[in-house]
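quick one: iron/sulfur cluster bound model?
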Amino acid sequence: MSDSKTTDIFEKELPEGLAENEYIKDRSDYLRGTIKESLANPVTGQVAIDDQQLIKFHGIYQQDDRDLRNERRKQKLEPLYSFMLRARVPGGIASPAQWLTMDKIASDFGNNTIRLTTRQAFQLHGIVKNNLRPTMQAMDQVLLDSIAACGDVNRNVMCNPNPVESKAHQEVYQWAVRISEHLLPKTKAYHEIWLNGEKYSTSLNETAEKTDEPIYGKHYLPRKFKTVVAIPPYNDVDVYAHDLGFIAIIKEGRLLGFNVTVGGGMGMSHGDPETHPRVADVIGFCFPQQVLAVAEQVIKIQRDYGNRVQRKLARFKYTIASRGIDWFKEELNHRLGWKLLTEQPFEFVSNSDRYGWIQGYDSRWHLNLYIENGRIKDEGEYRLRTGLREIAKVHTGDFRLTANQNLIIANITEENKSVIEQLVNEHKIKIGDEVSKLRRHAMACVSLPTCSLGMAEAERYMPSLLDQVELLLEKHELSEQPITMRMTGCPNGCARPYLAEIGLVGKGPGKYNLFLGAGHHGERLGVIYRDNIGEKDILSLLDELFFDYRSNRNSNEFFGDYLVRVGVVSPSYTAADFHFELKTAKAV
Ligand code: SRM
Ligand code: SF4
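yep, here:
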């Protein structure tokens, strides 16, 4: 292992036996690979094998339409390749010009929809190879980029997008942006490949002068890395789900500093007891000026000690779980040359969003819209995409993407409020009160047809399942109870289902593992309750549980807390607990 002063962990030659991605990074010349050649190849719609991994660092995934896969195979055609592009939006704040650009790209090159992700980023699907460069160049014109939106680096830094509370919130957001910029890869590859080597006035400009990677080294990180900044009392960013977190401590409107969290993560694989979700540990407190040093040293520890042999065990949570949190704290303090202080008290009340109109401390208005699963599209009378385009044309504030796949039209002036209100009404855009409490606390990942890892439907199925669960809640007079419910098409956990009071994790077509008992504020993992069940069983189990909950809950007791208190599930604090439950979970 290298010491903290060495940039690359492999000082000479790469040893044998590492994960294949390590060799791909090694021969990529700082993420260039043969991407340029792949783009120029007219024979196929895909890119070369190595490049399929490298383009992720540039914010792009190669995909194919899974609904059409079999048909094309029968016709002896290659899969219908296209690309998903994820734009980096630190803290989720985008300008109206950026919104209009993403909207235009979705029409010109994408599938006519925009996807707001669970990490406050834009995703566009269905971009064919030849349109990737024009897409990147259009984004660049409005200072958007997609470098490090994916890949083995620190990704989009999330931050509570709440513009309402105090000036300190703005300051916290600025720290999220600084962390994001500080941890960006410094390679010029992005410029050379996508922007023809030209310099534009983007944030990448300044860093593009350097060719090496002072933080990451040539082999970057062993695996993806995610950082968030939370502002209590809202845990909308789900701080415990991430590799690195900063919880802002604000007193009387003044930012004192941040509690630091490490080692959270959601992904696991069915049937692999070595993999598991993990909630992050709170390890101490630092002052604002110390944040970048903490972030950099945490990243470097993971760079040096993360598992580069087995990618399945390469996330930072496994480095922490295997070496222990005390080892980690000591290593961090040693590298920093000073000690984190004792964590400061804080309290979370929810990991969901607030909806509707809210007036902020500076009397500006903010409208939190309900966006079903983050998908921006027009559908019948619900003309969400057109309406948002019209709003972006007149809006003088900004747009804020939330970690719950919603959107805030923020910083609306008193004079503009009625104009925006009229556009919202005209296009039948939902502001939250038209949908049930359950739906307001629900999320589903993308899954089919674009996600290559999806085992069951999620985004396309969740709305109809919610219709059924709403009826059950009505029957038990629980409609006013906020219950978090999340669904993913596979165990990777992109909609953070293990932190929802009802979590459904895809196992096969129409089949899900049901997780119950997570904390309402995202502070405790859910536990598997039933394995591999379909809609009929999900509904009949929930029916029984809602009946018991309605009859026996304490006042103000959340559903997850109730299930743990009465022993329906045992709380899961360790990987061993989690897997014991998985092994013993029954089908119905
Ligand atoms: Fe994710 C892989 C979509 C947030 C854990 N995720 C994928 C891919 C790229 C599939 C792939 O590798 O081929 C999915 C693309 C689907 C598509 O067609 O769009 C995908 N992930 C998403 C998004 C779009 C879900 C959404 O509905 O919004 C989210 C984009 C976030 C962003 O803007 O950056 C998204 N993914 C998450 C989260 C939630 C979070 O970070 O808060 C997680 C769990 C947290 C974590 O990382 O532990 C998550 N995604 C994964 C994993 C499992 C990682 C692991 O540790 O094992 C994979 C698979 C992998 O990396 O091998 C994955
Ligand atoms: Fe795809 Fe699985 Fe993530 Fe859903 S959870 S988007 S199915 S990788």
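Residues 535-552 form the longest helix (18 residues).
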